[in-house]
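Morning!

This is the sequence you dropped in the shared folder:
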Amino acid sequence: MDRRTFIKTTGTALLLAPAIISDALAARERSLVAVAEGSDYPAITRRAINALGGMKRFVKPGDIVVVKPNMGWDRSSDLAANTHPLVVRAVVEECLAAGARKVKVFDHTCNDSRRCYVNSGIEGALKGIKGVECKQIEAERFRKVALNGTFLKEWELYDEALSANVYINVPVAKHHGLSKLTLGLKNVMGIMGGNRGYIHRNLDVALADVNAHFNSHLTIIDATRILTAHGPQGGNRADVKVLNKVIASIDTVAADAFATTLFGMKPDDIPVTVAAYRRGLGEMNLDKIKVMKV
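The structure's back. Tokens below.
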């Protein structure tokens, strides 16, 4: 190699080095999962968020934020079918403290929406907080989106989720009769319209298609109590296990992978986790995920 070629080659490498280093750091950080434990649910929710850099890392002053819990079932909070209302409230309060102009909380419920919003405890937990909108889904606000996925080429998604500056995914960790577990990746069904029964023909691939198009900025999994059987609706307290944990990550796949272990399972036991990992949507290998207990 002559001198000119050497200078040209090394110069290019030096120019690229910061980008390469930045990408490597981002990849390493992306597989970070924060796990907070304790009986004070708002406090552990905040600890998990702060371990990732705090809500101001995700929410900027003036942002419209969607906080998407699971409140699809007409069940009280102790039955672990829906996200715990105190976890949801803590996330919403952190968004507002970070400067959010408005925080919208909604879910496309399976049971009667009015009963789900009330009996989940989420609507009541948010009542009276200025800057929060907790309203039922409006059917006319779904719009068809080109997904160009493996199974779903297009689907109706909720406009308010699509137009938000920040989307925060706040599922509960629970058993599911078809998908084995429902965690962060599956919680995206709450912004889907149309005939959702159709996607059960190829559920894991369909969910990977939607998550590939619509990425959560932050995933916070409520594992304060988990539903271990007869999900997703549950209804028997004997199926509920209290763990007092909240899990947070910017990588939904990694968050799901760790949460899977709470059920005595492995990430590759869950088809949607595998499908999303193979699509390059996140990390599922536990030995490549950094778990930070806070």
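Headline: Residues 224 and 244 are 4 Å apart (CA to CA).

More detail when I'm at my desk.
O.
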